[in-house]
C-alpha cells in the first residue's frame, strides 16, 4: 500500500528563486497544470518548494492555491520544504485569499493553511493527522461522540478539502470510508 | 505663508494686501512685508493688486526646512508646505535647489525624483541645482538617480554621466540604488535585489518579510498604478546606535494613487464599503487606505486582494512603521511591541502625484546574521 506519491518540483514551475506577483504566478500556474497532466491519474500529489528561496502572497495564490482549488476532491495536494516561516505565513495568506485549504508537512508535523478552523474541526484534523488516517468509528470513539456526529463532521472536512475520503473494506466485511490526510505517509 | 498666499493668488489674482491678510487670517503688515520681499515672484498692478508672476522662476529650496546636514523626508515636506509644490502652480520654469552641501535621505531622494519627473512630464523647464552640493550630486549619481531622471531635466552644475557605471552597486554607501520597476516579468527582479542586499548585511532572518513587503508593493506599481514615469524601489540602512541599524525601504510611483485605483472596484464589488467611504469626503481617502491595509480582500481587480494586508502583517512582525504618501495626504502605521498604534493621517499636503511608500524598521547585524 506504500505507493510512492508523485512530487512536483515547484521551483521549476516558478522559474526563478524568488517569484512574486500575479503575472508570474499565472505562468507558474500553467506550468504546474502541465506537470499534473504529465503525472496522469492519481489521488495525491506532493509539491516541493525545494530550491525556492521566497515567494509573495500574490504569486502563491495564483500559482498554487488556485490549482489546488481547481482539483478539489479530485486530486489532493500537500506541500513540503517551505524555506521559512515567512513563506508559511505567505502561503497561509494566499490560501485565505484564494479560498482553499493547503496541507503543509513540515517534517512529521502536518499543518492546514487557510481559513481558521473551528475548535472542533481542529481537534478532528489533529486526530487524523496524528494517525495519518481514521475511520468514522475510530473518530467517534476517540472524541467520545456519536458515529452519526463523527460522520457529519468528517464529511464536512472532506467537502472543504481538508482530508481525502477513500472507501475500503472494513474488518467486518462491509464498506466504510477512511479519511486520510494528504501527505508522504498517507 | 508663501504657499497659502500663492494658492490664494493663483485662484484670485489682483487681491490687495489687506484682502489677502483678511482671507488668510494674517496680519496685514506681515503680508505686505512678505509680498514686498518677494517682489519678482509676485507682481503688483497699478491698483496695488497682487498676482503670481508666472514669468518668474519657481524656486523650491529643498534644504530650507532642514536645520542639520541631512535633508530628511520631513524636511522636504516642510519645504513643500512652506513654499508650495510647483505642481500646484503653473510656472513654466522650476528650479529645485539642494543648497549648503546638504545630503539627502532616501525617502526625500525618491520624492525629489518623482517631483522633478512629474514636472518634466508636464512640459515644464526643470533644473535640479546641486551647485553648492556637488558631493551630494556624486552620491546621487552612484545611486542611479540621474539615470532615473527625465532627460529633459537639467542638472546643475553638470549632469553626471552614469553610463560608465552600469553596475552602480551603491551598497558600500549603505544604499541599494534606485531600481527601476519594470514589467513584472522583466529579468531584473527588484524585490529579490533588495532582499539579497539586505540578507548580505543583516542575514536571512527577516529577509523574506522584507521581500514580501517590497514584492507586493512593486506588483501594485506594475499592475495597478498606471504610473506615468517608471516607479522606483530602493533600500538604505544606517547605524542607529547600540549595534542597531535602521533599514528604510522606499517604493515610489507617479500613478493614480491607491484610492483612485481602488474606488472603481469598490463601486462594482463592494458597494457597501464604497458607501462608507464616499469620494466626496476628503477624509474618506486615508480611512479607506487604513481599511484596505487592515482587511484582506479589497483589491482593484475585485478579487483576492492581499498585497496591502500582507504588508501590514509583516510590518507587525518587524515592529515597523509604514508611511504612505498620496497626492495630497499621507497615512502612517506604527507597530510597537507587535501592537499597531492608532493609524494617523496628515491632510492638505502639497501636490505630489503617485504613491510613495516608506517602510522602516530596526534590525541588528549580530542577531540577524
Helical run tally of chain B: 13
Q: What is the N-to-C order of secondary-structure elements of chain B (H for helix, E for strand)?
A: HHHEEEEHEEHEHEEHHEEHHHHEEEEEH
Low-confidence stretches of chain A: none
Structural class of chain A: alpha/beta
Strand order of the largest sheet of chain A: 1-2-3-4-5
Number of strands of chain B: 16
By oligomeric state, this entry counts as: heterodimer
Shape of chain B: globular
| Percent helix range of chain A | 40-55%
Percent helix of chain B, as a range, is: 25-40%
| Beta strand count of chain A | 8
- CATH superfamily of the largest domain in chain B, please? Histidine kinase-like ATPase, C-terminal domain
Largest sheet of chain B: 8 strands, antiparallel
Highest CATH level, the class of the largest domain in chain A: Alpha Beta
Number of domains of chain B: 3
Label the overall shape of chain A.
Answer: globular
Kindly estimate the percentage of residues of chain A that lie in beta strands according to DSSP. Answer: 15-25%
- The fold-level CATH name of the largest domain in chain B is Heat Shock Protein 90
Overall mean pLDDT of chain A stands at: 90
CATH architecture of the largest domain in chain B: 2-Layer Sandwich
Task: Describe the overall structure.
The complex is a heterodimer of chains A (about 190) and B (about 375). By secondary structure, chain A is an alpha/beta fold. Chain A folds into two domains: about 110 residues, Transcription Regulator spoIIAA (2-Layer Sandwich); about 60 residues, Orthogonal Bundle (Arc Repressor Mutant, subunit A). A five-stranded mixed beta sheet of chain A has the order 1-2-3-4-5. In chain A, strands 6-8-7 form a three-stranded antiparallel beta sheet. In chain A, β4 and β5 form a beta hairpin. In chain A, α2 packs parallel to α3, α3 packs across α4 and α6 crosses α7. The longest helix of chain A is centred in the N-terminal third of the chain and has 18 residues. Chain A starts with 6 loop residues before the first strand and ends in a 6-residue tail after the last strand. Chain B is α/β, with parallel strands linked by helices and about 375 residues long. In chain B, a hairpin with a 4-residue loop joins β12 and β13. In chain B, α4 crosses α5, α7 runs antiparallel to α8 and α8 runs antiparallel to α12. Chain B is built from 13 helices and 16 strands. In chain B, the strands form four sheets. In chain B, strands 9, 10, 11, 12, 13, 14, 15 and 16 form an eight-stranded antiparallel beta sheet that branches. Chains A and B meet through α2, α3 and α4 of A and α7, α8 and α12 of B.
Amino acid at each position: 500500500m506504500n505507493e510512492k506519491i508523485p512530487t512536483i518540483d515547484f521551483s521549476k514551475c516558478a522559474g526563478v528563486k524568488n517569484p512574486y506577483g500575479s503575472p508570474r504566478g499565472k505562468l507558474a500556474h500553467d506550468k504546474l497544470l502541465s506537470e499534473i497532466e504529465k503525472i496522469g491519474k492519481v489521488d495525491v500529489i506532493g509539491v516541493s518548494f525545494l530550491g525556492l528561496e521566497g515567494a509573495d502572497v500574490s504569486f502563491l495564490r495564483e500559482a498554487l492555491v488556485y490549482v489546488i482549488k481547481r482539483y478539489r476532491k479530485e486530486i489532493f495536494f500537500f506541500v513540503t520544504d517551505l524555506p521559512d516561516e515567512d513563506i508559511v505565513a505567505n502561503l497561509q495568506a494566499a490560501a485565505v485569499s484564494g479560498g482553499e485549504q493547503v496541507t503543509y508537512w513540515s517534517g512529521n508535523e502536518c499543518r492546514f493553511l487557510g481559513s481558521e478552523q473551528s475548535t472542533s474541526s481542529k481537534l478532528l484534523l489533529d486526530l487524523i493527522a496524528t494517525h495519518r488516517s481514521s475511520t468514522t468509528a475510530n473518530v467517534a470513539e476517540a472524541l467520545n461522540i456519536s458515529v452519526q456526529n463523527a460522520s457529519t463532521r468528517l464529511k464536512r472536512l472532506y467537502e472543504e478539502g481538508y482530508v481525502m475520503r477513500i472507501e475500503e473494506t472494513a474488518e467486518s466485511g462491509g464498506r466504510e470510508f477512511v479519511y486520510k490526510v494528504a501527505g508522504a505517509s498517507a | 505663508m508663501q504657499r497659502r498666499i500663492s494658492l490664494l493668488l493663483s485662484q484670485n489674482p489682483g487681491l490687495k494686501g489687506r484682502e489677502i491678510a483678511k482671507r488668510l487670517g494674517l496680519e496685514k503688515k506681515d503680508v505686505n512685508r512678505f509680498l514686498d520681499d518677494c517682489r519678482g515672484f509676485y507682481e503688483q498692478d497699478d491698483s496695488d493688486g497682487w498676482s503670481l508672476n508666472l514669468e518668474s522662476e519657481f524656486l523650491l529650496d529643498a534644504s530650507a526646512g532642514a536645520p542639520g546636514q541631512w535633508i530628511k523626508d520631513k524636511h522636504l515636506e516642510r519645504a513643500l508646505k512652506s513654499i508650495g509644490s510647483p505642481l500646484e502652480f503653473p510656472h513654466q520654469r522650476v528650479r529645485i535647489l539642494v543648497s549648503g552641501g546638504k545630503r539627502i535621505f532616501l525617502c526625500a531622494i525618491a520624492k525629489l525624483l518623482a517631483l522633478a519627473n512629474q514636472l518634466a512630464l508636464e512640459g515644464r523647464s526643470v533644473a535640479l541645482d546641486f551647485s553648492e552640493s556637488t558631493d551630494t550630486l556624486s552620491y546621487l549619481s552612484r545611486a542611479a538617480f540621474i539615470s532615473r531622471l527625465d532627460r529633459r531635466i537639467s542638472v546643475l552644475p553638470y549632469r553626471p554621466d552614469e553610463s560608465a557605471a552600469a553596475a552602480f552597486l551603491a551598497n558600500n554607501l549603505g544604499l541599494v540604488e534606485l531600481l527601476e520597476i519594470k514589467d513584472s516579468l522583466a529579468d531584473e527582479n527588484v524585490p529579490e535585489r533588495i532582499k539579497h542586499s539586505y540578507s548580505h548585511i543583516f542575514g536571512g532572518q527577516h529577509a523574506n518579510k522584507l521581500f514580501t513587503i517590497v514584492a507586493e508593493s512593486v506588483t501594485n506599481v506594475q499592475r495597478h498604478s498606471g504610473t506615468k514615469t517608471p516607479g522606483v524601489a530602493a533600500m538604505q540602512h544606517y547605524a542607529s546606535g547600540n549595534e542597531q541599524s535602521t533599514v528604510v525601504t522606499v517604493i515610489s510611483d507617479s500613478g493614480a494613487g491607491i484610492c483612485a485605483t481602488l474606488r472603481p472596484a469598490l463601486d462594482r464589488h463592494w458597494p457597501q464599503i464604497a458607501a462608507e467611504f464616499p469620494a466626496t469626503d476628503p477624509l474618506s481617502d486615508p480611512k479607506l487606505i487604513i481599511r484596505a491595509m487592515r482587511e484582506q480582500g479589497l483589491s482593484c481587480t475585485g478579487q483576492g486582494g492581499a498585497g496591502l494586508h500582507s504588508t501590514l502583517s509583516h510590518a507587525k512582525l518587524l515592529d515597523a512603521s509604514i508611511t504612505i504618501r498620496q497626492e495630497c495626504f499621507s497615512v502612517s502605521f506604527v507597530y510597537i511591541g507587535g501592537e499597531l498604534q492608532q493609524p494617523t493621517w496628515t491632510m492638505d499636503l502639497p501636490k505630489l502625484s503617485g504613491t510613495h511608500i516608506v517602510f522602516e524598521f530596526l534590525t541588528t547585524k549580530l542577531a540577524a546574521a
